[in-house]
Amino acid sequence: MEQEQLEKFRAWFDDYVAGFYGNDEFINANLKLKEEHTRRTCDQMLHLAKELGLSGNQKRIAEVIALFHDIGRFEQFVRYRTYVDSRSVNHCLLGLEVLHQTKVLGDVPEPQRQLIEKAIEYHGLRELPRDLNGQCLLFSKLIRDADKIDVLYVVTDYYRQYADNPEGFKLELELPDEPGYSAKVVEGLLRGRRIDYSELRTLTDMKLCQLGWVYDVNFTATLRHIRNRKLLEALVDFLPGTEDIERVKEKIFEYVDFRIKQQRCKN
Ligand SMILES: [Fe+2]
What single DSSP character describes residue 1? Predict the structure, then answer.
């Protein structure tokens, strides 16, 4: 892929997204969240691609994947006023529909287009299909990691805004902000298990689940980034200080540090 083509896609994204803003403040605030998320995910993607020593062509493909990974989010929110897929539509598949209908990737050679589309399709899955390999596996892993780094950043900012001013909060909270959390979620995290969205009942469950994303991180470079930016520390600030949650925190930090140390030993 040429640099020129990538620049064309960046301009297309700006135009496409601009078309969704209107007079509804709730919709605008939520659209902005995803627009900014996309831009930062592109930066994260490039950072990871560089750390992993990818070629110029691979870096450009990686950036297109990041740019379009949530392209379905804009239509999703305007149509359904939610980002919760289970209450609306699978935003990854909607994104592919948008790409097909607009033919924006029309000039991209078939093998590269396949890589881009598969990585977008798979980025929201609980787990990647087991039969992936080669470049498809590489790009699918990359977008999942880049996306997670930024979502961690977004949600902590989101929880801070909500804590500061619950009444003035204009974004969508996906779960009820009730006291308490699920024992099953805590137990799963202590066992090193990823938590499924279907297991979540309260906002604290959601925060715990987000903490557990580290179990699903593919590259140590991602964990180092999460550690250096103190993203986990920022998130645990919003969790209650009960004994079992303290154990979860300890377990998560130990896990991250272990993987970072393991990588250092390998090098
Ligand atoms: Fe997404």
Answer: -
List, as one string, the DSSP characters of 142-172.
HHHHHHHHHHHHHHHHHHHHHHH-STT--SP
The Å distance, Cα 83 to ligand 1 centre, comes to 9
Q: Which architecture does CATH list for 3-144?
A: Orthogonal Bundle (1.10)
| Alpha carbon of 181 to ligand 1 centroid (Å) | 25
Q: Provide the terminal-to-terminal Cα distance of the chain, rounded to the nearest Å.
A: 32
Domain ranges within the chain, ordered by starting residue: 3-144, 175-266
Angle 166-168-171 (CA atoms, 0-180°, nearest 5)? 85
* Token couple for 163: 């804590």
Q: Find the 34 Cα to ligand 1 centroid distance in Å.
A: 9
HSE on the CB side for 84, CA within 13 Å? 12
pLDDT tens-place string over residues 146-160: 999 998 998 898 888
Expressed in angstroms and rounded, the spacing between residue 252 Cα and the centre of ligand 1 is 24
pLDDT digits (tens, 9 = 90+) for 167-187: 777 666 677 777 799 999 999
Distance 138 CA to ligand 1 centre (A): 17
Ligand 1 geometric centre to CA of 123 (Å): 6
User: How far is the centre of ligand 1, averaged over its atoms, from the C-alpha of 92 (Å)?
Assistant: 6
